[in-house]
Amino acid sequence: MFFKLLKKAGHNLESWQQETGLAIAKRLLVVCMACVVVWEIAAAKSEKAKTLRTFLIKLSGRQMEWGKSFTNPALLAGLWVFLSMQEVLDCYSPEELATLQETAQDFLM
Q1: Rg of the chain (C-alpha set)
Q2: Cβ neighbours of residue 91 under 8 Å, at least 6 residues apart?
Q3: 20 to 30 A from 29, CA-CA: which of 4, 10, 70, 80?
Q4: Are 41 and 53 in contact (CB under 8 A)?
Q5: Which residue stretches of the chain have pLDDT < 70?
Q6: Domain interval for residue 45
C-alpha cells in the first residue's frame, strides 16, 4: 500500500526531480508523514473520522467503486486539496477572496 501511494496513486515518486540525496530524503520524509496521516484517517472508527473521510473524498473529486466509501489514494488527494485550501485561507482575507471570486466569474461567463 505504501509503495502504491509513493509510485502511482499519490506522490509520483518516479517523476521527482531532486538532484541530491538530502533533497530526496527531505521529500521522502514529508511524503511518509502524509501517508501516515492518511492511514490514521482511514483506520479511525469515530464518527468524526467518517465525516472527515467523506469530506476528503469530495475534495479529491474521485469516484469510488460500488460499495467502497473511500480509498487511501483518494484520501491522500483530498488531504492535499484541504491543506492547500487552509494555506489560501491563511494568506487571503475574506474580502480578497470575494474579489478574486468576482474576477474569476468574469472569465467564466
Answers
A1: 17
A2: none
A3: 70
A4: yes
A5: 3-16, 18
A6: 2-108
Identity at 30, one-letter amino acid code: V
**With b meaning 16 or more CB within 10 Å and e meaning fewer, what string describes 36-74?**
eebbebbeeeeeeeeebbeebbebbeeeeeeeeebbbbb
Q: What cell was used for 51?
A: 465525516
Give the chain's domain count.
Answer: 1
pLDDT in tens, 25-41: 887 888 888 888 999 99
- What per-residue confidence (pLDDT) applies to 8? 62
Give CA–CA dist 49/51, Å, rounded.
5
DSSP characters over 5-57: HHHTSSS-GGG----SHHHHHHHHHHHHHHHHHHHHHHH--SHHHHHHHHHHH
**Residue in the structure block whose three cell numbers are 531532486:** 18
